[in-house]
Amino acid sequence: MWRLALNSHLTFRPAYDAARAYFPIEGDRLTAYEMLTGKQLWIVDSHSALQPVAVDDLVVVTGPDGIAALRAADGSRAWHVPLRRAADLQTGDRQGRWLLAPTKSGALVALRTSDGAIAWRRTFHVAAARHTDY
Fold first, then answer.
1. Helix/strand/coil (H, E, C) string of the chain?
2. Pairing between strand 90-91 and 77-81?
3. pTM for this predicted structure
4. What is the pLDDT of residues 76-112, one digit of tens each?
5. What's the sign of the alpha-carbon dihedral 111, 58, 47, 115?
6. Which value, to the nearest 10 degrees, does the dihedral of the CA atoms of residues 47, 102, 111, 32 take?
7. Looking at beta carbons, which pairs linking 64-71 to residues 24 or more positions away fall under 8 Å?
8. What is d(CA 72, CA 125) in angstroms, rounded to the nearest whole number?
9. 36 CB contacts (<8 Å, ≥6 apart)?
């Protein structure tokens, strides 16, 4: 086992895949560590507005300019989608083929992890909830 001192505060919870841990840290950075040894693999500038998601040999982050997928091996950008109002990111299936990104405006967007293309988009109109005391 190993112990890690990040020397920076986490800005969100880390994301994990089978081999790596991805830590969003202060200073708008994302760093990857090998799980088996604790060795730092890479560190990149990356403003995270939400918790990152590890999927399909990628780590996906959201920032002020949209959603970006970084290659797990080296942190280089694989793709970028200018979807600026994402409120969350979730994997859409067990095979890691797509991500779900609900937006603050009420849309649900499905992105293919292979290239970031929008597979589909649905807008939901939610009626205001009635307040009831129980």
1. CCCCCCCCCECCCCEECCCEEEEEECCCEEEEEECCCCCEEEEEECCCCCCCEEECCEEEEEECCEEEEEECCCCCEEEEECCCCECCCEECCCCCCEEEEEECCCEEEEEECCCCCEEEEEECCCCCCCCCCC
2. unpaired
3. 0.84
4. 999 999 987 788 888 877 667 889 988 888 889 999 9
5. negative
6. 30
7. 67/99, 67/101, 67/111, 67/116, 69/113, 69/116, 70/30, 70/44, 70/46
8. 36
9. 19
Tokens of 16: 């994990």
The residue written with tokens 């990356």 in the block is 46
Which residue is it, tokens 């992890």? 113
Structure tokens, 54? 């590890």
Two structure tokens written together for 22:
């991805």
Token pair, residue 53, equals 């998601």
